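During the second year of the project, the team shifted from modelling isolated chains to modelling whole assemblies. The rationale, set out in the original proposal, was that interfaces cannot be judged from single-chain predictions alone. As a representative example for this report, we include one of the complexes processed in the last quarter. Its constituent sequences, exactly as entered into the pipeline, are reproduced here:
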Amino acid sequence: MSLSVTEKSYLYNSLSSSPSVRPDGRLDYQFRAIEITTDFLTSSNGSSRIIASDGSECIVSIKSKVIDHTVLQPDDSLVEVTLDISGQRDDSPMVESISSLLREVYSKTIDKKSLTLTTKYSFKLYIDVLVISTYSNPISLISMAIFSALNSTYLPKLVSSFDDIEVEELPTFHDYDMIKFDVNPPLIFLVIIVGNNVFIDPALNESEIANNSLIITWNDNKISPPIRSLALNDTYCEGFKPQLLQRSMELVEKCANGITAMLQDDK
Amino acid sequence: MSRLEVYSPEGLRQDGRRWNELRRFDCSINTHAHTSDGSSYLEQGNNKVITIVKGPQEPPLKSQLDQTKATLNISLNITPFSKFERSKTQHKNEKRILELQTILIKTFKKNILMHLYPRTLIDIQIHVLQQDGSLLSCLINGITLALIDAGIAIYDFISGISIGLFNETPLLDLNSQEEIVMSSVTLGVVGNSEKLSLLFIEDKLPLDIMENVLAIGIAGAHRIKDLMDIELKRHAKERLLKQSK
Amino acid sequence: MNVQDRRRLLGPANAKPLTFNTLTTSNESDELKKTVLKNEALEVALHTGFVSNSNGSSLVEVKDVANSHHETSLITSVYGPRAIRGSFTSQASLNIQLKNGSLEKYSSSQLKEVGNFLTNIFKSVINLPRYAKSGIDIFIYLIYDKEIQSNEKSDSTNSITSILPHCITGITLALVDAGIEIIDMAAGGIYKGNVFAFIKSGEEIIGFWKDEGNREDIMNSIDNCKKQYDEYKNMMLTYLVDKENCKAN
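Output from the structure prediction step:
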């Protein structure tokens, strides 16, 4: 969708005025409706499918593999994230930046202890993200999909002993029983700045007139790094006042707990 | 009965089916109404396939423009998590994928009334979320459903089916374990007729049993066509109800 | 241009291109040595206009003992505004790429992400609508980038974050050298893993990047980063004024 110059100017004025009016009538802290399905891929340990009201859709699969963590390099992670956005090349700036950010977020926040099996072996998690269609920046949608996928992940139950330094043995697992993977995954929010106003979860038409935007990570019930500024369009890019950074973070703090609770009890 | 017996003397396969039984077949159309002109979601056994049709639309590249008929483009995305064991590569531009794409394009070029849509592009995207044997036949069924949802004129249904041959016994609709141990044929059958629009054999198959194999396959394909038809009619009825409200 | 543009009417075949008298330029920029500016925390060497095939270029060498604890050297070259293939665009398209030097320190996706981030920053700095139908390409070559051995524990780890302010300085200088219109001189600062890029004497933030630390640091580090922004800006201005003076004499 491309808007004309006058349409953009109209949108800009309505969003930057006080009180502001969003094109779909939402308030500044309100999200668009989403639909989530979890646990539909039987060959994955966890999976989720999320559809936003504008038709953006994202599918996430979590698979695990037992690896020997004693041979890992210090900066090797136990979590690997791959991203495939349908219709975009793998080396396009958007795909590269988002996957680099996701790697940064999830390799740091998922606790290594929760994946450790024995003194020698660990699970390695593969988070594969497939974005089937997207209209605006999908980062927030992806993080919600990964959140619900990780929360529906079940890993095989270990039946062999924990300490295998003395006895050389491979970890063996229970035939049927699975253990729920216990994590509190981070969420990523996108906040746009228009004039002196800030809005969460921008739709495409709002992104096209944003002066600037911020990617804010929410982990462990507080705002935490990485935080980035991001330009969503070419024409309306501008600097913003430091107070707006503060207000964006307050906006995220206002709605993050609600979103987390909503995603956790979707079953 | 040993655990790895493909076909037991009692006539049962590993997953409990008899030789002429299909796997669970669940399909739905118009699943991605926002993003596409036609879409389908197909579950055939443990295969899960999303098909998205965009078009007929103006082609983004001049090279894709044909003055006399539509251009058909099919891109197949096999996700790294689709098999039980996660694959390391993204599968894009693999020879196997390119070959499957060409086979699908060749099959559907003849079935779509391409001359009705000159100077346009029909773009089909397929995402394989999970696979468990007979992939090609699943893709064919998914595309047929999505094309019908898009309202693109086709001559008839094309239903895909795979048949394997185990010790002179033909087995219908193979799963991935059966596919490894026996040679198989994939058929694309046109509607309720006995016409084939695709016959794909990669292995050795004795010629004298071929007729028998084809007969079983065509019967299976007709059943799949009926199952698709039931779902399409159910969907149409539902839509009509919504409209008349 | 040897590629004929088929979208335009080119006039009669015997038409001659319009030429202006060539300005007699002096080669003083070659003689100009790089200027070294110092204060107690920062040692910066700046140099511009030495990559002859580009429209503008800059060399930034920084030894930062106070904030990022890094010794960094990078070359920035600006190509453009130049014609782009394809459809009409009402404003210039900007593209910034980073390249590893001899030390293969950063992964390619990290460099792409940083390139994308810098592009986003400079979208609000360069007067892009001034250059319709054109592209501006900026390349940053990281010659070296190493951590200074310091006794006290440095608050920033060995990440790409610490070179961001130097990249911003480099690009700004190279843009000035190329004569591309910018809204203001952009510069940035780093404090406790927070990188801020400013324009308009620190009143407006144009970029923010944070990879570590916690939320409380953010607002507190703005002032520190602003101080560094002022330092960088003054250095750039001193350098540019000196250079002009050299030319004039």
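The domain at 23-244 of chain B is CATH 3.30.230.70 (Ribosomal Protein S5; domain 2). Chain B touches chain A through 23 residues (CB under 8 Å).
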